[in-house]
Design goal:
alpha+beta, Immunoglobulin-like, 5-stranded antiparallel β-sheet, 3-stranded antiparallel β-sheet, 45% helix
Length: 247
């Protein structure tokens, strides 16, 4: 067994030993690197050539990108300018709408005043033609209208004292509202306190126009309002009274 191993090792069939010269790594890399760079250059050239062959030109594309960036900047500035103008126009439109609404409101108020004046003119013309008793007191053109806010009403009427030689009437008036709240009917007297009594005083010779605001609970419903007029004689019985329902 030992003989066979020695024979195979030193015989002609034994494995041959080759001797090669040692080459340093930097020498090998100095040989490989040019080939690697050349291969990369060929690949890049082939890639660029393929893009140009397909219609893609880097210089032209770069120029087009610059032009697009320029257009985007210009459009952005134009968009900002247009937005500013739109905001100005919207503000101007709002101002115009507000002005038109205010003008329409003033026009309606003037028309209402004109209608009231025409009614007053016709009323006073009829009043001067009529032969009333001296000192006769009457409530005319009594109206009860809802106001702009819930629970608010406005009472309007005209107190007229007939006769050509009537004396000045000095007294007060009172408003008694009948309301229904939670199924119960109650009366509310205005003025509600002494501080507001000055608004309910009367002092006139021929006529006095009255316009008074009333406030009731929002949950209540106003059925009617009665106007009571008292003179300064101290009597608790009203000189004249008249009721009106909301329009």
């Amino acid at each position: 067994m030992m003989y066979r191993k020695l024979k195979r090792k030193f015989s002609i069939d034994a494995t041959q030993l080759s001797v090669r010269p040692h080459v340093a790594w930097y020498v090998r890399w100095s040989i490989y690197i040019p080939f690697v760079l050349a291969a990369i250059g060929m690949a890049w050239w082939a890639y660029d050539s393929g893009l140009e062959f397909a219609g893609f030109h880097r210089g032209q594309t770069r120029q087009e990108l610059e032009e697009l960036h320029t257009k985007v900047d210009a459009l952005t500035q134009e968009n900002a300018l247009l937005n500013s103008k739109v905001a100005q126009y919207e503000q101007q439109i709002e101002i115009d709408h507000a002005s038109n609404a205010e003008t329409a409101k003033q026009l309606k108020a003037l028309n209402d005043d004109n209608a009231h004046l025409e009614e007053d003119l016709a009323f006073f013309q009829n009043l001067t033609e009529a032969k009333g008793k001296v000192g006769e007191l009457g409530i005319h053109r009594l109206r009860l209208d809802p106001d702009s806010m819930a629970g608010e009403y406005r009472v309007r009427f005209l107190l007229v004292q007939g006769g050509q030689r009537a004396k000045a009437f000095i007294g007060t008036y009172q408003l008694v509202g009948t309301i229904v709240e939670n199924g119960q009917r109650t009366n509310v007297v205005f003025p509600e306190n002494q501080a507001d009594s000055a608004q309910f005083k009367l002092d006139f010779k021929y006529y006095q126009r009255i316009e008074q605001s009333l406030h009731i609970p929002v949950s209540a419903q106003l059925e009617s309002v009665q106007v009571r007029v008292f003179d300064n004689s101290g009597t608790r019985e009203p000189k004249v009274r008249q009721s009106v329902a909301p329009t």
